[in-house]
Corrinoid adenosyltransferase
Amino acid sequence: MKLYTKTGDTGKTSIIGGRVDKDHARVEAYGTIDELNSIIGKAMTELDKKLFEDILQDLEAIQHELFDGGGDLANVMKERHYKLTEAPIGVLEERIDKLSEEAPPLKRFILPGGSPAGATLHIARTVARRAERQTVTLMREIEDVSPVVQKYLNRLSDYLFAAARVVNFRLGLKDIEYIRGSDVFK
């Protein structure tokens, strides 16, 4: 099997149930989810398997869920079954709460960074936010989009923030607070 098809050489791409321009809002949204998935994969290569076993398990599950959500956005079939459900959102909320208990209390905004893995998770967080914004645009332009994907991406960005903080904390690195800000978290 060849990896190239040449069917996209005219600026169109196939989606589930049709073809659209490669810069269509639908392609932008699920393409950014694919980018996010790759960044999460990179973060996973930077995490010690024993020290971060729990986070690595989370991230692997998240990678599968991102494939589901991207597929849901790429589907324009009249009869469709969405793969991403509300259940993983509840799991993310539980994990966010658990990770938030482990990290020191947050008072101010913090600067992204710390360890290589922590910094990569912060990058993933910002890409998750972009994917969410693009999904909101898609939902506004096209009504037949699963709202679960947007909600999942919103919660995922919170999870990635919490995970980045815990990664740095377990490695003995303190958050660097944004010094010109005031206390915003109480």
Observations:
- The CA atoms of residues 46 and 117 lie 5 Å apart.
